[in-house]
Amino acid sequence: MNEIPLDGAVKTSTGARVTEAQVAQFQEEGYCVLPAIVPETLMDLLGEECEQAIGNVHSEMDAKGVDVLGGSRRGLQYTPGGCRKAQPRLRDFLFSNLLREICAQLIGDEAYLIWDQFSVKMGAKGSDEACARFENDGSPQSLGYFSWHQDSGYVPLDHAPYLSCWVPLDDITADNGPLRVIPFSELGIRTRVTHTPDPLNGDLVGYFGSLPGVAIEIPRGSVICFSSTLFHSSSTNDTSSPRRAYLAQYSSTTSAASGNVLWRDAERVPSGVDTPADEGSA
Fold first, then answer.
1. Residue range 178-193, pLDDT digits in tens
2. In this structure, are residues 150 and 181 in contact, taking their beta carbons and an 8 Å threshold?
3. Summary count for the chain: helices (H), strands (E)
4. H/E element holding 153?
5. What one-character-per-residue DSSP string does 123-143 give?
């Protein structure tokens, strides 16, 4: 059973805490940040699985004789998605007590995992000259950054907003491609809008204004929780070290507004909290 401390935070048997203020910010501004909350055992797992995901991309590139595969570019960036299918260990994180608790607090007791993806930017400095170079090829992030968009902008049918949980595997700074968000109150948009292709970068864009947004600089193991209708972007990694992150997305329903099944590979998130012995400490 959850312990309710005097400060109003929700503290569970794993030590995870989601405060009332964080829940309120998510509801009012479209996002909240849970600093350094992921247990080290799960961070180690994500680091190992990230390397495996990159290796899987390299294997597919080698088999096809290419250096560009979707949003991945050999030696520069990697965006493999749906990784849990080939890498079942990721389920230990995706269905962990921590993620169950986050889902329960932010979208309710009924939640479904709908997508997972690594996002790795190797850094503009120190890139091997033999690697593929960034150039517009019509695929997302052709130039190493991600334009202003809503995750919902990539979904073709009207749907209920869903939850994105973005976990950095490295400390995020102003220079290595931080996630930048525009709070709901600044833009006044809380619903899905039509996106159009960026002629330079190849990805979809839903906001062309001048608001700079908020750059979120956080330590590894934090979780940025945001609505699928929140506008966000990320810049290039202008350091010599990788900037790795893992994205997990959850919806309160598997259907579109029309009632048609939207998330065909969705998996129900178990309710309740398991014995936390295998998750270690944050």
1. 999 999 999 999 999 9
2. no
3. 5, 17
4. none
5. -STT--TTSPPP---SSTTTT
